[in-house]
Amino acid sequence: MLSYENWQELASSRRSTRDFLDTPVEIEVIRSLLTDGLTAPSWSNTRPFMVGIVQGEQRDRISQKLVSKLRDSAELPNLGSNPDFTHEIPYPKPLSERSQRVGLGIYGALGIERGDSKARFGFMERNYEFFGAPTALFFFTHRGLDQFGTLDLGLFMENIMLGAEAKGLGTCPQGFLGNYPDVVKSEFEVDENYALVCGMSIGYASDHPINNWKAERLPIDDLLVSPSQSSKS
Prior knowledge:
alpha+beta, NADH Oxidase
């Protein structure tokens, strides 16, 4: 049986990789990780998600289309993204403050100054280049299960990422990869009832300094809710 200490070591070692080697990952390895991911629980065992695997020419083609879309939206803002899932922009407080700290840390590790808009845009493009990873995964959930579908998907994705970590692979889950569902869906035969949620880059981490940067882990006390006054009476 896996000891708690071993699990804790694996879980704490998982970090988002933002620069990859171009070393290929065998499709059998990817399929094994996805299969292991299915050990995650699911609402009524519905598994309301689907996965698209991209490698080789398809990977390059999708990357080029996404980068082109991003550049077009920069020049013509009215041609911006139209994701299936979205969120409040800017993030509400205090979530925005946490996000800003991550941004500062990433750009600091990359040596990108606050006012260097060209370099910042270049890093945005790297998202659509999968940070150099040879494999990318795209995740869809069934619209009929709404939030429960995305909850199940998150559990599935976490298993994939921990499995990849155990195999010596790096991963980066990317909401950014869900910005242009038309581009991604055109590459797959996916039912119209399934919405694109996000993507994930996967491969072998390079020795780039960005992969040494670590986001903060919040103290658990910051996330615990206090008992209501009525519960104390």
